[in-house]
């Protein structure tokens, strides 16, 4: 593969894209293009921090899941001492896949080809015919599984193969303030409820990442029936109210929808609301008390959504959280992972109610999920057309909007919630990575 640094034409195109972003323009073809996909694998997913798992998915020693950093499959496992490791799922002898299950519990992994055995922490401990075949020339300590760097935030496990990457704290860059709404749901935080849904879709990962970075513009159109039937505690007339918040230069963004007169933290049981407020700072309590819907993306491809949903139209209903990952597997194609996050200390009754709301709305067969997937798939298909090579999209909303200085959260924060500022920040960071300037 010719890299960007070896392809002056590609570098020139990327610099044109980068300049266009600052002027509110972004090309259509990048949402379904082989060269862009290949470059993303090398320059973006090969360098950035990528979400791997939630700690609650592997609660006991020996628990593991298999996940991805770009096109690299990893075993994310908790060892006998409780420490989490992320190792490339490839035997160091001839490269066979070590673990063929998506989740389970194992203290060791044995290659089905030649029988090399590794601890779940990655150390090589067993080599058949070691004395007879290798004559003392192979030292097991030198041939463990390839390790990724990992770090965590409030239960989220991230990984990278970039040894020179900045810390996860620096990478998140203050977006932790907003992540806490999803993750600090009480003194013991959040946990996943059930295994993730995951499926293949003819959708470019970037479309989904942008949508969940705060695209409130599509909601009254694509999900109009939700308003008409009273499933949302807002209306098309009030839906644009709220804030768009992004961390400049980091790519992360969140949309915070606000409905006048909306009861703070509505959809949580009163006792749980009191515990959540204790887990947050005064500034967070003020911001999130004004938040009806919170939909955000951690750059590049991890997203969250929190909102109340009612099975009885017109009532507040139950507040749920979905956590989502868009794993790219080809140009215009991705594998979607979707989890339901619930407060760890909540009652089983509330957890089941939240899971039901999640399942009906944004799980694999959720009603709102189907609305989005139909639009995303068609957008992806059109981006591949020959005419799309010369087409740009407008990202012009909020170009001149100043920061809301009364808002008590970090980053570039503007109102209304319907705004393109988050997306310009997202694509600017994307372009910086592809140019090797992140």
UniProtKB/TrEMBL annotation:
InterPro entries: ARHD_Rieske_2Fe_2S, RHO_NdoB-like_C, Rieske_2Fe-2S, Rieske_2Fe-2S_sf, Ring_hydroxy_dOase_asu_C_dom, Rng_hydr_dOase-A
GO MF term set: 2 iron, 2 sulfur cluster binding; dioxygenase activity; iron ion binding; monooxygenase activity; oxidoreductase activity, acting on paired donors, with incorporation or reduction of molecular oxygen
Entry's transmembrane regions: none
Domain called Rieske: residue spans: 49-128
CDD domains noted in UniProt: RHO_alpha_C_NDO-like (cd08881)
Keyword Iron: yes
UniProt KW keywords: 2Fe-2S, Aromatic hydrocarbons catabolism, Dioxygenase, Iron, Iron-sulfur, Metal-binding, NAD, Oxidoreductase
Top-level lineage group: Bacteria
Assigned protein family: Belongs to the bacterial ring-hydroxylating dioxygenase alpha subunit family.
Protein name: 3-phenylpropionate/trans-cinnamate dioxygenase alpha subunit
Organism expressing this protein natively: Rhodoglobus vestalii
């Amino acid at each position: 593969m010719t890299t960007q640094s070896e392809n002056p034409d590609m570098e020139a195109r990327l610099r044109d894209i980068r300049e266009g972003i600052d002027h509110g323009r972004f090309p259509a073809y990048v949402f379904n293009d082989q060269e862009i996909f290949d470059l993303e694998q090398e320059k973006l997913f090969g360098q950035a921090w990528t979400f791997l798992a939630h700690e609650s998915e592997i609660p006991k020693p020996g628990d593991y899941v298999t996940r991805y950093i770009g096109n690299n499959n990893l075993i994310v496992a908790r060892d006998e001492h409780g420490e989490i490791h992320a190792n490339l799922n490839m035997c160091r002898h001839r490269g066979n896949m070590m673990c063929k299950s998506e989740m389970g519990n194992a203290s060791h992994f044995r290659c089905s080809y030649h029988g090399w055995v590794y601890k779940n922490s990655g150390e090589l401990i067993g080599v058949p015919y070691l004395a007879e075949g290798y004559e003392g020339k192979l030292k097991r300590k030198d041939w463990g599984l390839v390790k990724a760097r990992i770090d965590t935030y409030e239960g989220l496990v991230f990984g990278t193969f970039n040894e020179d990457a900045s810390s996860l704290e620096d990478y998140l860059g203050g977006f932790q303030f907003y992540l806490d709404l999803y993750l600090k749901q009480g003194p013991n935080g959040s946990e996943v409820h059930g295994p993730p849904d995951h499926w293949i879709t003819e959708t470019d990962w970037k479309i989904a990442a942008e949508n969940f970075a705060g695209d409130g513009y599509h909601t009254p159109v694509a999900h109009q029936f939700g308003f008409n039937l009273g499933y949302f505690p807002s209306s098309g007339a009030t839906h644009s109210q709220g804030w768009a918040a992004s961390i400049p230069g980091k790519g992360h963004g969140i949309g915070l929808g606000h409905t006048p007169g909306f009861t703070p933290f509505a959809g949580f049981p009163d006792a749980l609301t009191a515990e959540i407020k204790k887990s947050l700072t005064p500034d967070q309590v003020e911001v999130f008390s004004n938040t009806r819907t919170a939909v955000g993306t951690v750059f590049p491809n991890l997203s969250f959504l929190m909102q109340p949903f009612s099975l009885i139209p017109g009532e507040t209903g139950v507040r749920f959280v979905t956590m989502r990952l868009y794993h790219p597997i080809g140009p215009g194609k991705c594998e979607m992972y979707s989890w339901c996050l619930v407060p760890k200390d909540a009652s089983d009754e509330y957890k089941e109610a939240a899971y039901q709301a999640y399942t009906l709305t944004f799980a694999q067969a959720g009603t709102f999920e189907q609305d989005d997937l139909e639009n995303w798939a068609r957008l992806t298909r059109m981006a591949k057309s020959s005419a799309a090579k010369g087409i740009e999209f407008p990202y012009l909303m909020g170009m001149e909007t100043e920061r809301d200085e009364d808002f008590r959260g970090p980053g570039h924060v503007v109102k209304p919630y319907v705004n393109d500022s988050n997306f310009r920040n997202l694509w600017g960071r994307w372009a910086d990575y592809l140019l090797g300037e992140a």
